[in-house]
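Mods, move this if it's the wrong board.
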Amino acid sequence: MNEDVIKKIQKQIVRLLPVAGQNQPGILLADSCSEVSRLVAGCIKISDKSNRILIIKGINVCGTQKAHDILAVITVNNQIYVVDSTIWQFFPQAKSILVFIVNNIDIALDKAKAMYGGEWLKGEEFIQMDKNEEKKYLDIISQNIRENLKLLHIDYNKKVLE
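Not the wrong board. C-alpha cells:
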C-alpha cells in the first residue's frame, strides 16, 4: 500500500461520476459510502492480497444523523492507512481519499472521531468481492448518482426561479 495506489484508486472513483459532475463528488456520491468503500477495498485487495482491510463504521458523522463507512488498510508492516473513498461528502475541499496513516487501530478510531465527530467502531473485515457483488455495488452507486443528479437539478431550478 502506498500513496500512488491510493491516487490511482481515487481517479477510478471520480471516473464513476458523469463528466459534468466530477467537480461535485461529495454531492453525487452522497449515500454511497458503503458501496464505494467496498469497491475500493476490492481494488486494494487486488493490488496487494497481503493487506487486511477493516470497514470502520461511524454514526452521527460531522454533526449529521448520517452513518459513514471508511477503510482501515493494515499492511504487513502494521501500518494502517485510513481511506475515506467518499471523503468529499463531509470535506468538499479534500485533495485525497487517504485520511491518515497510523500504527494502531485504536488510534485510528480516535483520530476518526476527532476528525469526523460521532462514534466510530471496527466493523467487519473485508475478505474479497465477487463479480456479482461488484455489479450490485456499481448498480447501487449508479442509481444513487442518478438520484443525486435529479436533486441537483431541482435545487438549481428553485434557485433560478426565486
